[in-house]
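Subject: Re: docking follow-up (nicotinate mononucleotide)

Dear J.,

Thanks for your patience while I sorted out the input files. As discussed at Tuesday's group meeting, I've set up the holo structure prediction with nicotinate mononucleotide included as the bound ligand rather than trying to dock it afterwards. The sequence and the ligand SMILES I used are pasted below, so you can double-check that they match what you have on your end before we go further.
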Amino acid sequence: MTTAASPSPARPERRERLGIMGGTFDPIHHGHLVAASEVASLYDLDEVVFVPTGEPWQKAARQVSPAEHRYLMAVIATASNPRFWVSRVDIDRSGPTYSVDTIRDVAAQRPGAELFFITGADALSQILSWKDAASVLELAHFVGVTRPGYELTNSHLPDDTVTLLDVPAMAISSSACRERVADGRPVWYLVPDGVVQYINKHHLYRPVSSTSS
Ligand SMILES: Nc1ncnc2c1ncn2[C@@H]1O[C@H](COP(=O)(O)OP(=O)(O)OP(=O)(O)O)[C@@H](O)[C@H]1O
Ligand SMILES: O=C(O)c1ccc[n+]([C@@H]2O[C@H](COP(=O)([O-])O)[C@@H](O)[C@H]2O)c1
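The structure tokens for the complex came back this morning:
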């Protein structure tokens, strides 16, 4: 008598795990890239989507470079990593950029994916000032990463909404990169090589007088 082989037990399908790295990226630098890479590795993420802001309302007091420049620099910086992508959802939506919209838009494009929103310690400390903060914290799991000069804490946030992660310390900020370019100092190795070239080609961050030469 032959016994029919019992069907193998159905394995629950693994949900796609998607990181969201939101930022103004003016310009994108190695602090952003290392944070995303580290979270992707430790959380076994399939992909990380970098989402440049459209109108970063909490930076309204200062001049932010045109969204297309910030988007293209993010594309250049991530092009060599097969797991990194850049999304236009925030720059194609008019009005102030709210993460509640970002997460909903990304979720609509990737139904079923488990979402991990990556933030540095400084952004995490401000999260309760974001629009619909309570909903935001329900729509994705937040991963707060260390950043030199900022305290990383989730004590102001509801339990189980945010995980904290130590990442290699990169004392780099976009503001410092912009200041260096404006002063004629190098940003090599603070931002990817292609981003240095893009900044030079488009005369970004230069004092107005030096763009006419
Ligand atoms: N060096 C860094 N290490 C870890 N996280 C970082 C670092 N720089 C930025 N981040 C995080 O990346 C996200 C996007 O940051 P953003 O684009 O505002 O860069 P920034 O360097 O803080 O810019 P700026 O200096 O213009 O304010 C935020 O969550 C921020 O906390
Ligand atoms: O949702 C909000 O109200 C909100 C307010 C400030 C910042 N954020 C998000 O936080 C991320 C980092 O922003 P920023 O301004 O530090 O580059 C980026 O994804 C922003 O859209 C979101």
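A couple of observations from a first look. The radius of gyration is 20 Å. The CA atoms of residues 3 and 9 lie 17 Å apart.

Let me know if you'd like me to rerun anything.

Best regards,
T.
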